[in-house]
Amino acid sequence: MGRLLLVSLPATGAVIYRCKHCDTPLAYATDIISRMFCCKNGKAYLFGKLVNVNVGEKDDREMTTGMHTVCDIFCVACGCILGWKYLAAVEKAQRYKVGKFILDRGVLVAAASPAAAAAAAAHGNGNGNGMWQQQQQTSGDDQDSDEESSDHQD
CATH: 3.40.50.720, 2.170.150.20, 3.30.420.10, 3.40.50.1220. Which one for 16-125? Predict the structure, then answer.
């Protein structure tokens, strides 16, 4: 087997989402397009950009919002399934998803970048995790509403 090449995400101060199983960086929180999606395991995020993923075989799936052509995405380091990538949508109203990624929240860990943690520690937040705590309090993740459409596999 060849050598594993991981793409690192530069420290920008933004929260970085990582694989829960191996801590591989996957995306910035700023790349989240919507937090109102579902997958078979529960809540999910729609991302515009990801790194360190492999794509699986193309598959046509019937979802709650109609027929979509998708491919599963896997962590490049540990191989766990993270979600899927939209390749095509039959319904015109759903085509905004094409080229975007669904990540299962259950396989993600969010953490402040090292630069943000250092900055928080320098400003006297004690544990160096103040930015993440503030992000958690203001993000409203637990206040999901049914106003936007969600998508999950049936």
Answer: 2.170.150.20
Q: What is the pLDDT of residues 22-76, one digit of tens each?
A: 999 999 999 999 999 998 889 999 999 999 999 999 999 999 999 999 999 999 9
| Rounded-to-integer distance, Cα 64 and Cα 82, Å | 19
Cβ-based neighbour number of residue 87 at 10 Å: 16
Inter-residue contact 35 to 17 (CB < 8 Å): no
CA–CA separation, 33 and 148 (whole Å): 12
Question: Where residue 149 falls among pLDDT bands split at 50, 70, 90?
Answer: very low
Cβ(25)–Cβ(52) under 8 Å?
Answer: yes
Q: How many CB atoms lie within 10 A of CB 93?
A: 10
Q: pTM to 2 decimals?
A: 0.73
Identify the CA nearest to 29 among candidates 134, 127, 118, 122.
134
The answer to whether 27 and 14 have CB atoms below 8 angstroms apart is: no
